[in-house]
Amino acid sequence: MGDAGVFVVWGKRVALFAHLAHDRTVSRRRLGSLSVKVSTRGDYASRALLSLALHGDGKTPRSVRDIADGTGLPQPYLEQILLALKGAGIVRSKRGVGGGYVLAREPGSILLSQIVSAVDGPIVAGDFTDPHTDGACDHEGQCVLLSIWASAGTHMREYLDSFTLDDIAAMARGESTWPGS
């Protein structure tokens, strides 16, 4: 694969900085520009959790309204996303007065790939079957392309695995450099 490519997950276009090296490894230290599509749900989930990491103490719940106000996200949609994150064990909730959400784990143990997968399902580079299954190789060149798409999804997962919520919070606070800078 060359220096740039496009991964498609769904929805919103986000610039990630990744260079897929010749040896097919992905590293934050070997970065170039790569256009990636991440769903609105994946983006909103990441922003909501970043808000909890930046403003939470891990014990005091933060209300959906506070998260929505701080992030500019629509509250009704945010509630749905937080429920999916709760189902994935990434956040915990407390009901009633003083209720809201807290991270269920330390930010350093929450991977960006886990956040996206919690709301979008598996990270893939398209909705294709696996190579060599269900007659996928019946058409000219299709098996090769299916293998490339599968590899692209793997590279994207590995790249997102290289960021924890704690890493992202440190970048947002200006304590570490952003990818590509």
Features:
181 residues, alpha+beta, Arc Repressor Mutant, subunit A, 3-stranded mixed beta sheet, two-stranded antiparallel sheet, 6 helices, 12% strand, elongated
Structural summary, described in words:
It is a single chain. With 181 residues, the chain is α+β, with helices and mostly antiparallel strands. It has a single domain (40-120, 129-181), classed as Winged helix-like DNA-binding domain superfamily/Winged helix DNA-binding domain (Arc Repressor Mutant, subunit A, Orthogonal Bundle). Helix content is 41%, strand content 12%. It starts with 5 loop residues before the first strand and ends in a 9-residue tail after the last helix.
Helix and strand layout, with pairings?
Layout: E1 6-8, E2 12-16, E3 34-38, H1 40-55, H2 64-71, H3 75-87, E4 91-94, E5 100-103, H4 112-120, H5 142-161, H6 165-172
Parallel strand pairs: 1-3
Antiparallel strand pairs: 2-3, 4-5
Helix pairs in contact: 1-2, 1-3, 1-4, 1-6
